[in-house]
Amino acid sequence: MRIEDLRPTKGSVHRRKRVGRGYGSGRGGHASGRGTKGQNSRSGGGTRLGYEGGQTPVWMRFPKRGFNNYGRIDYMCVNVDTLEERFPAKSKVTIERLQELRIIKGRTSKLKVLGRGELTKPLTVYAHRFTQAAQKKIEEAGGKVKVV
């Protein structure tokens, strides 16, 4: 058997009905299966999505809540103890490297280093923000803090 030999089961495929092509076509002279008169009988007729026949729609009946702060900056946070266990001594820690190692997931624009845990090896950490505790721990371990 070859792909060009495949055919649909007999009787499963129907021809499209061409309505509104005159009385002789057998498929509607003037109404073409749309009923008589009314909104849905016209071309371009019908209602929009969510229309409830003139009743106040559900999206207008309920109050709005909250807002989206477009000025908000989201930081991906990484703790010092994570850097301790995942990076060898004297290595560079960047957003790209953290994404490669799947420590931070998703698209992120900014990175913040937090101070949980201990750090014993020197690392050069590139981030947008550091907590005071994190900065102190990195520098005490002989590493460098670089603000991007």
Q: Main β-sheet, in a few words?
A: 3 strands, parallel
The portion of residues forming beta strands comes to 5-15%
Radius of gyration: 33 Å
Tell me roughly what share of residues is in helical segments: 10-25%
Shape: elongated
Task: Show unreliable segments.
Answer: none
The N- to C-terminal Cα distance equals 62 Å
Helix/strand/pairing class, anyone? alpha/beta
Description:
- Helices cover 18% and strands 15% of the residues.
- It is elongated and about 90 Å long.
- It has a domain at 75-147: Ribosomal Protein L15, Chain: K, domain 2.
- The protein has helices at 58-61, 80-86, 95-100, 132-140, and strands at 75-79, 92-93, 110-114, 124-127, 129-130, 144-147.
- It has a three-stranded parallel β-sheet with strand order 1-3-5.
- It has 148 residues and is of the alpha/beta class.
- The protein has four helices and six strands, in the order αβαβαβββαβ.
- The two termini are 62 Å apart.
Features:
single chain, 148 residues, alpha/beta, Ribosomal Protein L15, Chain: K, domain 2, 3-stranded parallel beta sheet, 4 helices, 6 strands, 18% helix
In short:
The protein has helices at 58-61, 80-86, 95-100, 132-140, and strands spanning 75-79, 92-93, 110-114, 124-127, 129-130, 144-147.
